[in-house]
Design a protein that fits this description.
By secondary structure, the protein is an alpha+beta fold. The chain has 12 helices and 37 strands. Strands 6, 7, 8, 9, 12, 13, 15, 16, 20 and 21 form a 10-stranded antiparallel sheet that branches. Bound molecules: (2R,3S,4R,5S)-2-(hydroxymethyl)piperidine-3,4,5-triol.
Length: 699
């Protein structure tokens, strides 16, 4: 008899149960999230089937198992794979109860042969057409069991000409939008990197019926809340239905689960639209701003970061001169990046000092506090860079705690960027990582912003803390340990903003974002490449969370660099003293302009108008309360061509101004909404790296 469930809901009547407690009445379960609905059904044997996902009817019969376990009939990729206490490798899941509490639905499943229980959880967000799905796995078997696969969610999409879009790349080359038709067989999009896990692929996918289109067509988005190794499998089964399974990557990560302990899988956010990726994105952006991101409805400051301006080469006087430069340009926040710490092995480059978090006395003889004070006196907020999970072997920390790093016994240590990863499965290491941040923030209350970096992935995943048997827990325990540290930092310092960075976009999932205010998408800041990277990010990340800095990379025209960066959360990585007079004047004006349009950019709805993948010109529009900003960028020479706008009132008249020009703003006068929607906004012929920005305000 099952025993995992709390009181059953009205849908769970005693009469409809078998003698084993299986709910055998055929019941339809609807998870309703506005325009997105998932439907499940219990069949006459008490198994749970998925009936539909959005407008897509799932496979009928056994191919439609909702959360397929391995070993008892299911011969495809499983959502769940369990070795029971007695070595039996099969699991059979039947429905025990269905509970609804507001928008949270819990479907209780159990195995009639074992005291083994799975709860499928669904949290619906009707305002955004979003459903979060995850599971909780538990047992009361007389001994430990092993979970060899433990997905967060599984969906069957039925038959269709489905296409899969992934967002892949590498360091400084993130988020390529790559689409392919889903054919027979299985496609795995995954990461086995453990830490900095998204370096090669973001944990987001789209599945569309036909090629994904911006303004029409059915499309499903999936985004996993997990900063470690993840796995999405997309399998077209012999009967032609398409099965998605999403969750932590169980590769090398079997979980030994003692009786009574709950193993909760991370949330998978699903969103669905029948009207293309544009509406899907706008819904996801609202969801992220309201439900994921910290302070998602508060405008972000304009930031000067010294990284590309100085790299490791700075001292107190230089930093203070950068404050002056930032202030003169109208910026609001200064971030001191890598290189401010370590004395035994000073952090003069990336080869040493990481882990020794005291200010370097040669560069900063008066410490960090004075910098924060001076910044504040000059009217700037102050932020500081940390990489609390990592260590250089050449550091006092490593000399003292060589066993705190992730390594394999007997193997030569493999370094990446001359560094090793600290083992966050170890509570002492977690305490250390928390203290690094907590002490610095307590000591210098003037720090109101931190950049949390993480610059390598795992290649030798072994822990001196975990037992021999539980070595496979390392990757999962690491991420849980990381979240514990992040949660403590957030609770202890609720007013400190966080930029999530991992050598650029190596940690870009919604879980990491839920502890942060924004992500640093890429170390590639050449605007001609950034157009593509920001385009890829824009499917899942709103502009407010997408840090975009003007730098000297690529030596592009400053106007082009600003126009690209201003479509995200604007910042600069430039020494203002090194700007020419013309560049300085332009930067000052552009920053003023950004302040005028910031609310529209950071809180507005995004319309991707022209893709950089399909022509020489890319363009996008951000709209808030009928006020719009339009960006057009030439990735190659682009002829003059009108650009039809979106989301305007055809009856209204709009005042259109081209802003961010090298000379005076250009007034295009009043243009009717109808004309802007149909014949469009006139865009000049643009040479390579040419760009234009327009403000379209209702009259
Ligand atoms: C990688 C980040 O992406 C850069 O922005 C910078 O912070 C460096 N790390 C510092 O080491």
């Amino acid at each position: 008899m099952p025993s995992s469930t709390p009181s059953a809901s009205g849908q769970n009547s005693a009469e409809s149960r078998s003698s084993q407690g299986i709910l055998v009445a055929e019941t339809v379960i609807k998870i309703e999230a506005g325009d997105f609905e998932l439907q499940f059904k219990t069949d006459e044997s008490g198994r749970l089937l998925i009936l539909s996902c959005g407008a897509w009817n799932s496979a009928s019969g056994p191919d439609g198992w909702a959360y397929p376990p391995s070993g008892d009939g299911w011969v495809f990729e499983p959502a769940l794979s369990v070795v029971h206490h007695d070595g039996n490798r099969s699991t059979d899941l039947r429905v025990e109860a269905i509970e609804k509490e507001g928008h949270l639905t819990t479907i209780h499943l159990f195995d009639p042969l074992y005291a083994f229980f799975v709860k499928l959880k669904f949290q619906a967000f009707p305002a955004y057409g979003v459903i979060e799905a995850w599971t909780e796995i538990q047992h009361q078997e007389p001994g430990e069991i092993t979970l060899e696969a433990y997905a967060s969610s599984s969906l069957d999409l039925g038959e269709g000409s489905f296409h899969l879009t992934q967002f892949c790349g590498d360091w400084a080359d993130e988020a390529h939008v790559v689409e392919e038709p889903i054919n027979r067989g299985i496609k795995i999009i995954d990461s086995k990197l453990g830490v900095r896990a998204h370096q090669f692929t973001a944990p987001w996918i789209l599945v569309s019926n036909g090629p994904a289109q911006e303004e029409s067509g059915e499309v499903l988005a999936g985004s996993l809340w997990w900063s470690g190794s993840f796995k999405f499998s997309v399998e077209k089964l012999p009967m032609n239905s398409v099965r998605l399974i999403a969750g932590i990557n169980p590769f090398g990560s079997a979980i030994n689960l003692p009786a009574g302990e709950i193993f909760a899988t991370p949330k998978m956010t699903w969103a669905w639209s029948a009207t293309g990726t544009g509406d899907l994105t706008r819904n996801l952006h609202r969801y992220v701003r309201n439900e994921v991101l910290r302070e998602g409805n508060t405008e972000r400051a304009i930031l000067l970061n010294n990284w590309e301006a100085t790299y490791f080469d700075f001292d107190e006087a230089k930093v203070i001169s950068l404050f002056d430069g930032a202030k003169a340009l109208g910026m609001e926040l200064f971030l001191l990046d890598d290189g401010w710490f370590a004395n035994k092995h000073p952090r003069s480059g990336d080869h040493q000092g990481l882990g020794d978090w005291e200010p370097n006395t040669e560069k900063l003889p008066n410490g960090i506090g004075i910098l924060a004070d001076v910044a504040q006196k000059k009217g700037l907020r102050f932020g500081l860079w940390f990489e609390p999970e990592m260590v250089n072997p050449k550091s006092a920390l490593f000399e003292e705690h060589p066993d705190w790093v992730i390594k394999q016994p007997g193997r030569e240590l493999e370094l990446q960027r001359n560094q090793l990863t600290l083992d966050l499965s170890n509570p002492d290491v977690r305490e250390f990582a928390f203290k690094v941040l907590d002490s610095a923030l307590k000591e210098t209350p003037g720090i109101s912003y931190i950049k949390w970096d993480c610059n390598r992935y795992l290649t030798q995943p072994g822990s001196t803390y975990l037992s021999k048997k539980n070595q496979t827990h390392l990757q999962v325990d690491y991420v849980h340990g990381l979240y514990e540290v992040m949660e403590r930092v957030k609770a202890a310092h609720p007013n400190v903003e966080i930029m999530m960075c991992s050598g650029g976009g190596g940690r870009v999932d919604y879980a990491a974002l839920s502890f942060a205010h924004e992500v640093w998408p890429s170390d590639m800041t050449d605007p001609s490449r950034r157009i593509f990277i920001q385009w890829g990010f824009s499917y899942f990340m709103p502009a407010i969370a997408t840090a975009a800095h003007v730098t000297k990379m690529g030596e592009r025209p400053i106007k082009f660099a600003f126009d690209v960066a201003m479509s995200g959360r604007l910042g600069m990585d430039v020494d203002a003293e090194k700007l020419t007079l013309e560049e300085h004047a332009f930067a000052k004006k552009a920053i003023q302009n950004y302040k005028q349009i910031r609310e529209i950019i950071q809180m507005g709805d995004l319309y991707r108008l022209e893709s950089p993948y399909t022509g020489p010109r890319a363009s996008l529009q951000l709209t808030l309360n009928n006020r719009s900003v339009v960006f057009a960028y030439a990735t190659d020479g682009a002829p003059s061509q009108n650009l039809s706008l979106r989301a305007l009132d055809p009856e209204a008249s709009y005042q259109v101004r081209e802003i961010n020009r090298l000379d005076e703003d250009r007034d295009l006068g009043f243009i009717s909404g109808k004309e802007l929607l149909t014949s469009g906004l006139p865009i000049d012929a643009l040479g390579t790296f040419g760009s234009q920005v327009f403000e379209v305000l209702p009259y």
